[in-house]
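Inverse folding, one chain.
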């Protein structure tokens, strides 16, 4: 589903060069739930951003669902990302001026669907994460766990085949963290969504199909 071939990522600033990823070869199978662990700065977010076509490798290649991604600009890529990938971030990234339902509808604005259909899909996604009763709330009126559930609803509203989650439980206590984890496990098992999740939590990682460990940009397990 996601294939990385000899991926290197080098960040260059005026004074330093950082090898953020070093010869990564990774094949994430369709329907797999993969977790990624490793110390701060080892390249986890960089890896996820490259898988999510937010960032491009300095060397090596990426293919997703059999499509090789060789050009990182243009509308075609934005469309591809919008249709196939859902993102969840540690700090939620919700838009504070928009209600919960409007936040969830956002990814659908780039598609040719009627307003009514958008609303219906957003309601369905919010129902899945148990937040239909908070549709009209604004992000500032929600708890951390609820915000993260809205972010999950936004990630799944377009029915992506891949979800990329960067420490989705990092800012939550263990009860809320487990709730989020259960939602992700449900998506993986019931909808067969392929998931790649960065986590610092060994217990969360144990619940997934496979664990990849990074150290200084290299894959160690
Ligand atoms: N835009 C950038 N410019 C220069 N260096 C960067 C940039 N982004 C990341 N880096 C460097 O690349 C390395 C990997 O960063 P990355 O964000 O992938 O780490 P991480 O494993 O996600 O860490 P954390 O657990 O703290 O989120 C780090 O050493 C970081 O300083
Ligand atoms: Mg990170």
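Residues assigned per position:
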């Amino acid at each position: 589903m996601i294939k990385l071939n000899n991926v290197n990522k080098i960040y260059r600033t005026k004074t330093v060069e950082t090898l953020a990823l070093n010869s990564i070869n990774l094949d994430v199978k369709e329907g797999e739930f993969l977790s990624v662990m490793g110390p701060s700065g080892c390249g986890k977010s960089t890896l996820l951003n490259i898988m999510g076509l937010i960032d491009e490798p300095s060397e090596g290649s990426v293919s997703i669902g059999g499509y090789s991604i060789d050009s990182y600009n243009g509308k075609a890529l934005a469309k591809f990302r919008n249709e196939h990938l859902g993102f969840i971030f540690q700090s939620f990234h919700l838009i504070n001026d928009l209600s919960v339902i409007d936040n969830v509808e956002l990814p659908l604005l780039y598609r040719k669907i009627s307003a009514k259909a958008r609303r219906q899909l957003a309601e369905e996604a919010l129902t899945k994460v148990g937040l239909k009763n908070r549709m009209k709330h604004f992000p500032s009126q929600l708890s951390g766990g609820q915000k993260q559930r809205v972010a999950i609803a936004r990630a799944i509203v377009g029915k992506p085949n891949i979800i990329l989650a960067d420490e989705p439980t990092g800012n939550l206590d263990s009860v809320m963290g487990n709730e989020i984890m259960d939602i992700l496990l449900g998506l993986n098992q019931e909808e067969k969504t392929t998931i790649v999740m960065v986590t610092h939590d060994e217990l969360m990682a144990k619940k997934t199909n496979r664990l990849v460990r990074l150290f200084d940009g290299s894959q160690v397990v």
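The longest helix spans residues 174-190. Helices lie at 44-51, 75-84, 100-105, 115-128, 144-156, 174-190, 202-206.
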